[in-house]
Write a structure and sequence with these properties.
Layout: H1 2-16, H2 36-51, H3 53-81
Length: 83
């Protein structure tokens, strides 16, 4: 178990100093009208997080940490298929 934690810490450290791009969510426009479905989705997210905060937040952060390398690999794959 401690090897897994050490591996996760090393991977997080390498991702911090890499050139891999992550989504910053700056393009979200929450100043205008927000659809009712979006408000319901936010309430549902809060309910899920409050059901088991440590596990849900860890899962959310791991998914976000993995999203950068996945997007990078998809970008490389897409560029290689073009002539």
């Amino acid at each position: 178990m401690s090897f897994l934690v050490a591996l996760m810490v090393a991977a997080a450290g390498m991702l911090m100093v890499s050139n891999i791009k992550y989504n910053s969510f700056k393009e979200l426009d929450l100043k205008g009208r927000v659809p009712f479905v979006a408000i319901l989705a936010v309430v549902l997210v809060f309910a899920v997080v409050f059901s088991d905060p440590p596990r849900i937040l860890l899962l959310a952060f791991l998914v976000y940490a993995a999203s950068g390398p996945v997007q990078y690999l998809l970008h490389l794959r897409r560029d290689k298929t073009l002539p």
